[in-house]
Predict the 3D structure of the following.
Amino acid sequence: MSGGMRQRAMIALALACKPQLLLADEPTTALDATVQIQILLLLRELQRDLGLSVIFVTHDIGAAVEVADRIAVMYAGRIVEEGTARELIRSPRHPYTIALLKSRAHGALARGTRLETIGGAPPDLSALPPRCSFAERCALASDACRAAQPPVVELAQNHRARCIHTDAAAAIAPMLVA
Ligand code: SF4
């Protein structure tokens, strides 16, 4: 069977017990782009038709945007930004979310432009620093970011971010709409 067929078989197996919650962990990894979108649409359709809740785990924020109502962005084991998919795409307020969005091919990207990458590497998860875990890779990092864990900031109803420079972050996130 092809990768797409195997993935559909796995989804059928998972649905056989009529679950109320489906945890789909990287269900489109290693699939080509066409099959990937088919699987995403299938999951979306099943979720609506069967009244399922789906937790979709992915490293591809572009895929999350296609399939999710709400998105929680995790970095170094913590949720750093959470909100509706629409809110996160239109007004991301955590530098990591913004960096992820800038690293994908989005609608506002001029033809021939290189995709941005996130320099550096994640921290050692077995010895997390007592500061913002993203500080070593963040363009907005200040002394305050390295002094303590940033608190969770409520930005709007159902939109929050773990960052002390959410206003400055908003300024570096123009035109990311897909
Ligand atoms: S708290 Fe500071 S280092 Fe951490 S993401 Fe926000 S701006 Fe960057």
